[in-house]
Amino acid sequence: MLYSLARPMLFSLSPERAHELTLSLLKSAHKIGLARQHIAPKPVTCMGIEFPNPVGLAAGLDKNGAYIDALAAMGFGFIEIGTITPRPQAGNPQPRLFRIPEAKAIINRMGFNNDGVDQLIENVKSSKFKGILGINIGKNADTPVENAVDDYLICLEKVYHYASYITVNISSPNTKNLRSLQSGDALTELLETLKQRQLELAEQYHHYVPLVLKVAPDLTEEDIEFIANQLLQFKIDGLIVTNTTLSRVGVESLPYGNEAGGLSGAPVFEKSTECLRQFAKRLNGQIPLIGVGGITQGEHALAKKDAGASLVQIYSGLIYTGPSLIKDCVSAFN
């Protein structure tokens, strides 16, 4: 109710300004105890972790882990922060975030704007959150794609001690050539190298932190087959399906519909869910799946589960619906 009253004011601002203001207000509300939403537990065990409920926050909303406590109070079963890179970077020039309310959609070309992995770690250390925290890692824009594995290793090593699981983001369309890491020898080298380092870190810390891959929805059947085989070969612990899409189906005739960047929200639901279904078919329960993309109501979360997801994540739907979406999704995920 409160969000429905605040939304017109927030939508009168530029999307990026509204994003910043919302997080600031949420943090202030949390400090005085007004941001808490009670959600009955619905435990789910996935990747060897017990999640209090199956609905998480997708990466991108809290890139630097500066609002973890306030976001957790909303009732998420888990929080994913990032995408983080080894060094701070400003991201792409503004404007770079566009609402398409007629389609409950968002286009972004943020470009991994973040304060760097060291600042994220300081933010995590200063939070009081004791729940499930995913940390999403990427590469700096000025790191050549052939050297991308070096950036992922830096981030993996630095966040390992602080993460419940670590997501390897190779599917954002807003960092040049990043999606090329989803195929061929580049993916093989990346997964092999990161898996080896993960096992070394598990021995060093006497604690195993699952490694998860996040993929795009814009994959062919051959791509899905190849990625699935790679995941199985290197025993990757989980797969997030999917990131944003380059497709403009459903928004091409709307204002901002042809802006460059990744499309999220309602128009990506069918494409993302079909991709999820295809991965579930090929992985056959051997690797758990996290469904994300286009969830704007509880029934969408259930559809992701029916397509093979053990957990789901939301972000764009939250912008249009508000915190009640979390409770709706948990209730529907029976």
Automatic annotation (TrEMBL):
Subcellular localization, as worded in the UniProt entry: Cell membrane
GO process terms (BP) = 'de novo' pyrimidine nucleobase biosynthetic process; 'de novo' UMP biosynthetic process
Please verify whether the record's keywords include Flavoprotein: yes
Gene Ontology cellular component list: cytoplasm; plasma membrane
What cofactor requirement does the entry state?
A: FMN
Boundaries of every Dihydroorotate dehydrogenase catalytic domain copy: 44-328
The active site of this protein is located at: 172 (nucleophile)
The EC category is: oxidoreductase
| Residues that, per the record, bind FMN | 59-63, 83, 136, 169, 214, 242, 265, 294, 315-316
Give the enzyme's EC designation. Answer: 1.3.5.2
Cited InterPro entries: Aldolase_TIM, DHO_dehydrogenase, Dihydroorotate_DH_1_2, Dihydroorotate_DH_2, Dihydroorotate_DH_cat, Dihydroorotate_DH_CS
Which pathway, per its entry? Pyrimidine metabolism; UMP biosynthesis via de novo pathway; orotate from (S)-dihydroorotate (quinone route): step 1/1
- Cross-referenced PROSITE patterns: DHODEHASE_1
Which catalysed reactions does the entry list for this protein? (S)-dihydroorotate + a quinone = orotate + a quinol
- Write out the entry's keywords from A to Z: Cell membrane, Flavoprotein, FMN, Membrane, Oxidoreductase, Pyrimidine biosynthesis
User: What is the documented function of this protein?
Assistant: Catalyzes the conversion of dihydroorotate to orotate with quinone as electron acceptor.
Assembly, in brief, is: Monomer.
What protein family is recorded?
Belongs to the dihydroorotate dehydrogenase family. Type 2 subfamily.
The record's listing under HAMAP family reads: DHO_dh_type2 (MF_00225)
Q: Under which name does UniProt file this protein?
A: Dihydroorotate dehydrogenase (quinone)
**Natural source organism:** Acinetobacter ursingii ANC 3649
**Gene behind this protein:** pyrD
